[in-house]
From TrEMBL:
Main location: cytoplasm
Chain's gene name: pgi2
GO cellular component term, pick one: cytosol
A Pfam family annotated for this UniProt entry: PGI
Gene3D superfamilies assigned: 1.10.1390.10, Glucose-6-phosphate isomerase like protein, domain 1
Pathway terms, separated by semicolons: Carbohydrate biosynthesis; gluconeogenesis; Carbohydrate degradation; glycolysis; D-glyceraldehyde 3-phosphate and glycerone phosphate from D-glucose: step 2/4
Function in brief: Catalyzes the reversible isomerization of glucose-6-phosphate to fructose-6-phosphate.
Species assigned in the record: Neisseria zoodegmatis
A molecular-function term among this protein's GO annotations: glucose-6-phosphate isomerase activity
PROSITE patterns in the cross-refs: P_GLUCOSE_ISOMERASE_1 (PS00765), P_GLUCOSE_ISOMERASE_2 (PS00174), P_GLUCOSE_ISOMERASE_3 (PS51463)
Name of this chain's protein: Glucose-6-phosphate isomerase
Length: 545
């Protein structure tokens, strides 16, 4: 850490100690303009970050931290196509995926990449539209009614989230997802389908992920076992991969293999051909709106000063709580049934990106990096883990994500849901003092009141951000996802780690390769006693079945 950074870090530590008795309740009372000063808008999105344990001084210090960490320079390096993913020697260009045609060139290794990006995007969009308008039929001439996307992690979560989120925009093809190697997943998806009217898409950046290849093989067997043959695979199987050769070797016709690029990480790839299921679900025009929304957030991120920059502010608040206020996690609660996969998506985006303990220089960090991200759709989360957010001993800042309008308009349901989101954020901030709890129990005998009041006290001063969107449409979804992408990037820069590799997921994969054959054998086992015991139990349970 440079001297300057160490000094800012120490200033923030001292500031935390000096302001630890500050209460948001008092801050709101003292400054009626707090919301005006602490919210930002961009198109149909509003970020209210006023319900945080911060003052203008906190924000100044945090912006200094971002400055001294080189956030601006690193963001420029990313945008330019520099190889900022050092451990994999790769550029990081998900922002280039949403650049409009005609944008200034972006170079990797001296080669301009925009024309390749736009060519593959067009190919995928055209293919999606050909399914939707019926010009691409199945091998027996029938119209395609179902699209099965097979992928995992970044090749699944983004598309699945977007297809669910944009449910009101769905067209005439049902889109299904298979990710888990547990056969219940593929069995349940395939059961109601007709191979003559189904198109499969094998999505794997590496085309080497065993779960995906296993499911792809199962889909292929299912297809061929139902009266269609190998030659028909050409019209029914597509692939998305940066390993185009391997996809072709699997038997997928080159015309239906869509390329990914090694300068886009899996969890940042929904904007690429990996978005094919989204294109099939909502059509090419709507998919372009999704890209435009993400691009609008990119422009905001690259060109807005830190004090008003939404991804930077969210990142700094996360650093403030995680590194200075001892927060143990971060909750994400979309008050939208259609956004119910957002927590799952953000778990991968955030924890696979910033769950690192080595600096870019390979040293062990002496500060905390990424925390635990979890969540659930509101209002359901309220009836599950909100108790801990309100009265538990741990500090867990929360993001409330709330669309203002609903396309469904059933009774007062939406208004009720929005009211609950606002109320939870208010309750977390305000809390309820012991005296207020006592006053509520005024009708009870004193002994009973005194016994009950402590249980009804809420500490309050619990932070949250509210991210409101005027409606859940493709453009706003694009802005929302890009907002979190850039937040995570900024935190990675401040922590001096690489958010774009994922070596930590490899080790278990290798061990699984050794264990799988052992499950079928009777040979002596040489693992630790626990693993031996688990394998032994499997062998006993499956011996006679
Ligand atoms: O195991 C983790 C991971 O490598 C993720 O980073 C990635 O999104 C997922 O596996 C799937 O990888 P692929 O797209 O190469 O199949």
């Amino acid at each position: 850490m440079t001297k300057e950074l160490t000094a800012i870090w120490q200033d923030l530590q001292a500031h935390q100690i000096n302001t630890s008795s500050l209460n948001m309740r008092d801050q709101f009372q003292a400054d009626p303009a707090r919301f005006d000063k602490m919210h930002e808008t961009l198109h149909g999105l509003l970020l209210d970050y006023s319900k945080n344990r911060i003052s203008e001084e906190t924000l100044d210090l945090l912006c200094r931290l971002a400055d001294a960490s080189g956030v601006k320079q690193q963001a420029e390096a990313m945008r330019r196509g520099d190889k900022i993913n050092l451990s994999e020697n790769r550029a990081v260009l998900h922002t280039a995926l949403r650049l409009p045609v005609g944008s200034p060139a972006v170079y990797v290794d001296g080669e301009s990449v925009l024309s390749d990006i736009h060519r593959e995007l067009e190919r995928a969009l055209t293919f999606a539209d050909s399914l939707l308008n019926g010009s691409h039929t199945g091998a027996t001439g029938k119209r395609i009614t179902d699209f099965v996307h097979i992928g995992i992690g970044g090749s699944d979560l983004g598309p699945q989230l977007a297809v669910q989120a944009l449910q009101p925009y769905l067209q005439n093809i049902r889109v299904h997802f298979v990710s888990n190697s547990d056969d219940a997943n593929i069995a349940q998806v395939l059961a109601p389908l007709n191979p003559e009217t189904t198109v499969f898409c094998v999505a794997s950046k590496s085309f080497g992920t065993p779960e995906t290849l296993l499911n792809a093989q199962a889909a292929r067997n299912w297809f061929c076992d139902r009266g269609l043959n190998e030659a028909d695979i050409a019209r029914h199987f597509t692939a998305i991969s940066s390993n185009v050769e391997a996809a072709r070797d699997f038997g997928i016709t080159p015309e239906h293999v869509f390329a990914m690029f090694d300068f886009v990480g899996g969890r940042y790839s929904v904007w690429s051909a990996i978005g094919l299921p989204v294109m099939v679900a909502i059509g090419s025009a709507r998919f372009r709106e999704l890209l435009n929304g993400a691009h609008a957030m990119d422009e905001h991120f690259f060109h807005t000063d830190f004090r008003h920059n939404m991804p930077v502010l969210l990142a700094l608040l996360g650093v403030w709580y995680g590194n200075f206020c001892n927060a143990c996690g971060h909750a994400v609660v979309p008050y939208s049934h259609n956004l119910r996969r957002l927590p799952a998506y953000l778990k991968q985006l955030d924890m696979e990106s910033n769950g690192k303990r080595r600096t870019l220089q390979g040293e062990t960090v002496s500060w905390h990096t990424g925390g635990i991200v979890f969540g659930e759709e509101g209002v359901n989360g309220q009836h599950a883990f909100f108790q801990l957010l309100h009265q538990g001993t741990r500090l867990i800042p929360t993001d409330f994500i709330v669309p203002m309008r609903t396309p469904y308009n059933i009774g007062r349901q939406h208004r009720f849901t929005v009211a609950n989101a606002f109320a939870q954020a208010e309750a977390l901030m305000l809390g309820k003092t012991l005296d207020e709890a006592r006053a509520e129990l005024a009708g009870l005998p004193e002994a009973e009141r005194e016994a009950l009041a402590p249980h009804k006290e809420f500490p309050g001063n619990r932070p949250s951000n509210s991210i409101l969107i005027d409606e859940l449409n493709p453009f706003n979804l694009g802005m929302l996802l890009a907002l979190y992408e850039h937040k995570i990037f900024v935190q990675g820069v401040i922590w001096n780690i690489n958010p774009f590799d994922q070596w930590g997921v490899e080790y278990g994969k290798v061990l699984a390769k050794n264990i799988e054959p052992e499950l079928e054998q009777t040979t002596e086992l040489h693992h630790d006693a626990s693993t031996n015991g688990l394998i032994g139990f499997y062998r006993r349970c499956t011996r006679d079945t």
